[in-house]
Every structure is written in structure tokens, then in C-alpha cells.
Records
---
Amino acid sequence: MSSASFPKSARLRRRSEFDALRHATARTGSSHFVFVATPTAAPARLGVIVSKRVGTAVRRNRVKRLCRECFRQWPALRAARVDILVIAKVGAPSLDLAQTKREFQRLLKLLQQLPPREAPRAVEAS
């Protein structure tokens, strides 16, 4: 994955994927975001939720772009085998990229506490 791309394989796309993560137990928060993560056997994927309470469409889209950019630029996030859900809070649009990266530091601490998940085992024919 190049640093400037965000392919479909790196995104949470279905409602069921978002719902499954929303109820995961590995959560941490910052003043502007709630981070939820769960280990998987597949490469890291990111999902961002920004409700209308956060602001206009322009402000919501800016928050999403900042979150995706943090994910793209952080090799430790991309290398981890986790699904990550970022839920934006009301003050999130006031952040710039550097401030957003500082908020994502909490996410890295959460990821370090997650137990690794083993890859699925192949079924042996008997």
C-alpha cells in the first residue's frame, strides 16, 4: 500500500463491520475521539464515524480526511492486524493534522495492549 492511497481493502465498508466493532471491548478515548479496536487475522482496516452533531458536511469530511491521513502516515497502524473504528466527538473539526496525530497516540497505546490474534488454521483432510 503506498503512503498516498487508501484502498478498499484498508477500509471498513459494511454496516455489519461497523456494528461488530462498535461493541468491541478494546476502547479508549481522547478529548476529540473514541477509538475502538479489535484484532483480526487480516491487514489493518479503518472506519470513521462522524455524526451530524460534529458540524456541517464540510467539517465532517475534513475530520474523516484527517483520520485517514493519520492512518496512512503511521506505519505502526497500517502494520497492525486490527480493525480500527474512530468515532469523532464534537470538537474534532477544530484540530489540525499535528493535533490529530497526538490524539491518535492513545490509539497506539490501545493497540499495544491488545492480545495478538492467531491466523486461521487450515483444515486437514483425514
---
Amino acid sequence: MTDTLEIDAAELYRLLAEDKITLVDVRRDEEVARGIIAGAQHIPLHLIPLKVDELSGEQPLVFYCHSGMRSAQASAFMASRGRQNIHNLQGGVLAWGKAGYPFVAKEA
């Protein structure tokens, strides 16, 4: 049994409106420079193992990337460390943009 759930862009938008999730963008710096989902923190995939403690807790944790593949890896890694309530944005920013949801500039 996996502790990772796939969610779509509409479900992520709803969760963001409730302001009760931790949203993590695992893309590379140059990808994030083109825009990020508002409220997300940027932790490139290769740094996730170093940030396990920062991503612990009970609050739902949502990962996303460009298409959903790297964020699925981040989700699986965190689940392997015992983290629960993990979500992966199905289709990544491609699906988010296609659904018409906005991007913002990454905060410094």
C-alpha cells in the first residue's frame, strides 16, 4: 500500500484555497525561473533527501514538477521515510497550465 495519492489540478487548486497544505516544486532552477504555483516552496528533487525533517508533519504534502514524473519520485522517497498524507500533482505544471490556473514569479 502506498501513502502517495495522485491529485489533479482542480483538486490542488481547492487544497490551496484552504491554505492547509505544504506545496513543493521539485523542478530545476531554470524551470522555476519561468514561474511557480503560488504558495510553493522550491526544493529541487536532488535536495529532497536533505530536507526530510523540514517536510515532516501531519499537514498534507504536495509535490509537483513539469509533468509529474520527478514529483512522483519525491513522493515515493518521502513515503519510504514514513511520511504520510503525500500527494503528487498528476501531469505537473503542464496540467496546471492547461487547466488555466496561474503561475507567479518565484520569491527570492
